[in-house]
Write a structure and sequence with these properties.
The complex is a heterodimer.
Chain A lengths: L2 E5 L3 E2 L5 E8 L7 E7 L6 E7 L4 E3 L7 E6 L4 E6 L8 E11 L2 E7 L3 E5 L2
Parallel strand pairs in A: 2-11
Antiparallel strand pairs in A: 1-3, 3-8, 4-5, 4-9, 5-6, 7-8, 9-10, 9-11
Chain B lengths: L3 E4 L2 E4 L5 E7 L7 E6 L6 E5 L3 E2 L7 E6 L2 E6 L9 E6 L5 E2 L3 E5 L1
Parallel strand pairs in B: 2-11
Antiparallel strand pairs in B: 1-3, 3-8, 4-5, 4-9, 5-6, 7-8, 9-10, 9-11
The chains are: A mainly beta, B mainly beta.
């Protein structure tokens, strides 16, 4: 059974960089797409970006200038960095596996989520 | 960007009711449409992928339909554990989610 677990600081100051890591267990990270999705308190889901095991990335256009997703296959981890954060970036951040199957693409395994608050 | 619009944004229903949630895309997405269920404080759970394929382990009372721009998620007989928020998600282009439909107890 694949499991994902987010880790990182729960509080980030405005203008600084948010950093989160997702550790994958029960399966290899050397396949599939690995994604970050966020959810502001009381609001809906917003896709942030994903990285393919080959290293290619795709980011939400409105966040592209501030987002970097990277992969560490030796540790079975992938990471999110979001720079120049503001209060609007306060959210629960989920990592998820994106699968290509049956002619479709979907998120089948998710982490439990990590709340990141942007505040001074 | 493809916009995903769900309706209603919330509904009240009783155990045993048949419930249908609608999702509309701003352009055709063929059948690149997925449905998720989210309970408070938990991560979303995949229910339906490719518009109508039931994810392994999901009860058969859940079904999905549609293609192009209009899609539905139907719960044939609502159970107590089904009270949650449901999201559609398009995967035709860069992933995007609908605003959610909260299913509450009447």
């Amino acid at each position: 059974q694949v499991q994902l677990q987010e880790s990182g600081p729960g509080l980030v100051k405005p203008s600084e960089t948010l950093s989160l890591t997702c550790t994958v267990s029960g399966g290899s990270i050397s396949s599939y797409y690995w994604s970050w999705i966020r959810q502001p308190p009381g609001k809906g889901l917003e896709w942030v970006g994903y990285i393919y095991y080959s290293g290619s990335t795709n980011y939400k256009p409105s966040l592209k200038s501030r987002v970097t997703i990277s992969l560490d296959t030796s540790k079975n981890q992938f990471s999110l960095k979001l720079s120049s954060v503001t209060a609007a970036d306060t959210a629960v951040y989920y990592c998820a596996r994106r699968v290509v199957a049956a002619g479709s693409y979907y998120f089948d395994y998710w982490g439990q989520g990590a709340l990141v608050t942007v505040s001074s | 960007d493809i916009q995903m619009t769900q309706s209603p944004s919330s509904l009240s229903a009783s155990v045993g009711d048949r419930v249908t949630i609608t999702c509309r895309a701003s352009q055709s997405i063929r059948t690149y449409l997925n449905w998720y269920q989210q309970k408070p404080g938990k991560a979303p759970k995949l229910l339906i992928y490719a518009a109508s394929s039931l994810q392994s382990g999901v009860p058969s009372r859940f079904s999905g339909g549609g293609s192009g721009t209009d899609f539905t998620l139907t719960i044939s007989s609502l159970q107590p554990e089904d009270f949650a928020t449901y999201y559609c998600q398009q995967s035709y282009s860069s992933p995007g989610f609908g605003g959610g439909t909260k299913v509450e107890i009447k």
